[in-house]
Amino acid sequence: MSDTTMPATRRREATRQKLLDAAAQVFAEVGLDAASVESICDRAGFTRGAFYSNFATKDELMLALTERVAEEKIDAVTARIEALRATGETFAPAEIVQRVLDVAIDEKMSILLTSEIRTRAMRDAALAEAYLAWQAGIVDRVAGVIVDLGRTYGLTPRLPPHEFAGLILQQWEDTSAFAVMKGLDFAELCTLVNDRTARLATALVDPA
Fold it and tell me: Which of 204, 197, 199 is nearest to 159 (CA)?
C-alpha cells in the first residue's frame, strides 16, 4: 500500500515515525542543539508543515523519541524474561538481574537525549508535566516486570514494586549519565551500568 492510498491515521503515524527516525539520525550526527527542525525534515523527506502537524516543538519530538527508545528497551527486557522462563532453569538473583539488564543498555545518544529532556523539563512546566506523566508510565511497566520476576523466581522485593522500580530507574539514569561524563566507551558503560543497577536490585530483594 502506497502512502497516498494508506488510511489517514496510518499515514499520519507513518509520517510521525519517519520524523522520529530522521531525528535520531540527525541527533547522532550533529548533536541535540545543532539539530534543526529543517535538517530533520530534510532527512525525513517532509516539509515543515508535516513536522508541525505531528509535533508542536523540537522538544516535543525529543520527548517522543525518548519514549520510543524506552518502550523498545522494556519490550526487549520482557522478551528476555520470557526466554529465561522458557528454559525452566533456576537462577540466583544477581544472575537474573544481569541477564535481564544486558539487553537494555542505552547508547550514548539515548542517554544524552534523556538528560537533555530532563534539563529542558525543569525550565518548561508543560514539558515537565508531559515528561513526568511518561515517566510514571515507565515506572508502572517496570513495576510489572519486577512483580513478574518475583513470581517466576520466588524473589520478594523489600519495597513496594513501584518504589523499587523508581529506585532502579534512578540508579540506571544517574549511572548512565555519570558514565558519559567520564568518557567511558560503550563496553565500559555497559559494565558499569549493569553492575551498579544489579547490585542495587539484588540488595532490595529477598530470595525464596
Answer: 204
